[in-house]
Amino acid sequence: LGSGSRMLENREEELTTVRVQDPRVQNEGSWNSYVDYKIFLHTNSKAFTAKTSCVRRRYREFVWLRRQLQKNAGLVPVPDLPGKSTFFVGSTDEFIEKRRQGLQQFLEKVVQNVVLLSDSRLHLFLQSQLSVPEIEACVQGQGSQTVTEAILHYAMSNCGWAQ
C-alpha cells in the first residue's frame, strides 16, 4: 500500500443520518390534539456533540426552528417546510405521512448546510428535549446549562432511548 491510500483511510467521511419517524397523535380526540414525530440522528460529524440522539418534536417547533435559522443565516436560503394544510383532501394518515416526509427532507437539507449547522438552536432542537422557550434561554446564556451541557445531559440521561 502506498502512502496515498493510507491518508484516505484516516480521513473518515463525515456522515449524518437524520430520520423523522413514528408520528404520534397526542391528546387524541381533544381540540388541542397534535402530531409529534421522532427525530433520530446518527452522525460521526464533529459538528455534533452527541453522536446519536432521539427526540420528539411537533410541526410548530419545526416552524419556529426554520424561522430562527432564517433569521441567523443571512443570505443562505433555508429549505422549505411542508405546507400547513387545513384543507387536505385524503386521509389524515396520508397527510401525516406526507408531512413526515417533508419534515425529513427539510432536516436532511439543513444538516448538509454548513452555515445552518453552526446554529446552536438547531443542535438543541435535534439533541435535547428542551422546549422552544428553554432553547432560546439556553442559546442566550440565560439557562442553567450551556448548549453543550444541555445536549450532553440529555444524551447521558438516556431519555432519547426511552421513547
TrEMBL record:
Gene Ontology CC entries for this record: endosome
Protein name: Sorting nexin-11
Biological processes, Gene Ontology terms: intracellular protein transport; vesicle organization
PANTHER family listed in its UniProt record: PX DOMAIN-CONTAINING PROTEIN, SORTING NEXIN-11
GO molecular function: phosphatidylinositol phosphate binding
CDD domains: PX_SNX10
Protein family membership: Belongs to the sorting nexin family.
InterPro entries: PX_dom, PX_dom_sf, SNX10/11
Location of the PX domain: 15-132
Membrane topology: Peripheral membrane protein
Subcellular location per the Swiss-Prot or TrEMBL entry: Cytoplasm; Endomembrane system; Endosome
Species of origin: Mesitornis unicolor
Superkingdom as given in the UniProt entry: Eukaryota
UniProt keywords, alphabetically: Cytoplasm, Endosome, Lipid-binding, Membrane, Protein transport, Transport
